[in-house]
Amino acid sequence: MECPFRTNEELIEEIAALKKRIEELEKSESVLMEPCKTLQSGEQEYRSTFENAMEGILRIDPDGRLLIINPAFANIMGYESPQELMSSMTEIAAHLFVNNESYCEFLHMNYENKTVKAFEMTACRKDGTICRLSVNSRLVNDDHGKTIYIEGFITDITDNMRLKDELKNIMREHRIIIDNANIAISLVQNRKQTWVNRKTEEMFQYPKEEMVGQTTRKLYPSQEAYERLGAEAYPVLARGETYETVQELIRRDGVHIQVRYIGRAIDPPDLSIGTLWLLEDITDRFRMEESLRKAHEELVQRVAVRTEELKQINEELRSEIVERKLAEKYLRETEKLLTARNILLQTLIDNLPFDIWAVDSENRYILQNSMSKNLWGDCIGRRTPDLDFPAETLERWETNNRCTFEGKTVDDEFRVKMDEKELFYHEIVAPLKQGRDIIGIVGANIDITDRKQAEEELHKSEERFRIIFENAVEGIFQTTPDGRYLGMNPSFFKMFGFDSSHEMIETVTDIGQQLYVNPDDREKLKDLLVRQGKVEGFEVELYRKDRTRFWVSINVRAVFDPKGSILYWEGTNEDITSRKHAEDRIRASLHEKEVLLKEIQHRVKNNLLTISGILALQLNRIKDDESRDTMITSMNRINAITKIHTKLYQSESYSNVNLSEYTKELLWELSRSYGLLFENITARIGDISIDVNTAIPLGLIVNELVTNSMKHAFPDPEKGKIAIIISKEGSRITLTVSDNGVGLPANIDFNNTESVGLSLLNQLVKQIDGNIELHQENGTQFIITFSAD
Hints:
Blueprint: H1 8-52, E1 56-60, E2 66-69, H2 71-76, H3 82-88, H4 92-95, H5 100-113, E3 115-124, E4 130-141, E5 147-156, H6 158-179, E6 184-189, E7 192-196, H7 198-204, H8 208-211, H9 223-238, E8 243-250, E9 256-265, E10 275-281, H10 288-317, H11 321-350, E11 355-360, E12 365-368, H12 370-376, H13 391-405, E13 410-418, E14 421-434, E15 437-447, H14 449-471, E16 475-479, E17 485-488, H15 490-495, H16 501-507, H17 511-515, H18 519-532, E18 534-543, E19 549-560, E20 566-575, H19 577-619, H20 625-650, E21 656-658, H21 659-674, E22 681-685, E23 689-691, H22 692-712, E24 722-729, E25 732-739, H23 756-767, E26 771-775, E27 780-787
Parallel strand pairs: 22-24
Antiparallel strand pairs: 1-2, 1-5, 3-4, 4-5, 6-7, 6-10, 8-9, 9-10, 11-12, 11-15, 13-14, 14-15, 16-17, 16-20, 18-19, 19-20, 21-23, 24-25, 25-27, 26-27
């Protein structure tokens, strides 16, 4: 029979097990409490964000009932608190959405996409006013995929939408005004039209679709005119100034018109944003004379008819006082109207940009505008023959006036000298009629001096160009893209051995096959022209008429029509045969010299190595330490020179040595020779190359300074450190060699010493025209500067 009591040992084991289990439970409880604390902290942060958010937040269940809202949403809807809104608005579809279809669309998008962004809807506030809202929402499901609620973030966009609608209306009105403006307006970006109004379409007879997105090149008579306007206008526009000019352009029907340009950059100096152009067709100004004559004639006739009517009225009113008073009053009003019309007519005439005048049947001046008086003086009331003008001018006027009194219109140009200046005028003279009777003459003089001078300059320029073309040393030509010549100057056909341009044009029908030694070169030239528009310095070998070969350098450009198709090529040929032969001779001579120089460098290096080898053999037989030291020093000096020639032999350049590579190899050899650890030598040397005349003495200088440090500076070589720095600033090179050794003896003057090494050092520094400095604060430091040239 078992004992029902436990022994002490069993109780102790059971108590220990319970204690361990309690400790594990406490640890588990601590681990479980951490997520709870984190969850409570996150819930507090979310609650703070929810309550203080600037945008409205709400949750609705799948049946459309509000679950929770924040104060911002209540404020948007016009309620004092979320509680007030929740008590008044139970179903969101009935209260929040004005349009039930919008609510259905909102639910559908949430269930379809899980999230909805920037959904716009119309809602009704507490006071009945309508507001516009933007909603970002998401659908929240439980672990089984069942919808728990929809959470939305709402922003009031009522004011934004109202401003946006107002802005659209304003922009629509402005666009209508600009599009229907009575002046052509065009927006241009990177020389392409991005917008034109209706007046622009009417002016050039192109529909908007053919103008927008295209350059204005097709409106210009030439590529040169198009590029010239760009070169003149865009620097002015970039400075923020207004550019104004008059330019001849071409309508779609081929008619040339004169257009006044006024341009302004939208955001100078950044022209990439675009430029605004106002265009005015001023072609009719050049034809205004005839319209002005007709208007003046009609006005004079109306005045005459009206005056006759007034006379008849006055006769009828003499018999009756009342009618006379009424007639007088009417007459005064009519006279005022006529005076105003006459003032208006005179003002209009005075402001015309040309000379307007009129004479009666006796050649007496009855009308002059301001410009006419400024040119000829006040002639009102005076007869033409009595004026103080040159006899030639009076004779021409008399002839023109006589023809005009016969009923003819005179269109003439004349020249007059005024104030030592020669002026040119275009004169139009027409009869001034009253009914069928000619009662005078009306005329207009337009100053065409600038045009005449421009025509004269153009003629001179054409003559100068012809002389240059005929006498140019270089050959000048024009060809078709398919390989036929259109024209050339004498230098060109003589270059090919032909007697005339006609002979060469008739003989050469395929330039590539007949003249090019390698016809593929012609195809390469054509390909470059198609891609670049011009080619400069294209060197090619050609055949002369007698099939001898010669070299030319071609400069050529393609000339395009308004549609962008190539019309022809034009350019120049320069005979470079002599230069080519000279280059070949120089190249061959240079190669020979390079081979010779390389062989010399190789032999010098080998001779130095031979000398070094002889000294090494001799070194083995020398027992005296001082003599051995002297021999080693000499061998190191020879080695420094040998490495210079080795570098020259291995380099592509036979005159320059790279200091960095050379110095580091020299230091390696010296460290091996004197037993100093190479790790104790620091070298900071820039990428510097010098000529051989400087490299040899500089290499010996480095050899002497480093050798001196290694031999004399360090009682304990393992602790010795040497630093070499070579830098270049401008045209000066600085060499610094320093060590942390014991320094030179105090009684030694390094500039005046019997030491071979220091004496050699001074001589080498003088050889490279350099300066040397000695500093002994912490060890020894030599600083040598010299010119890099």
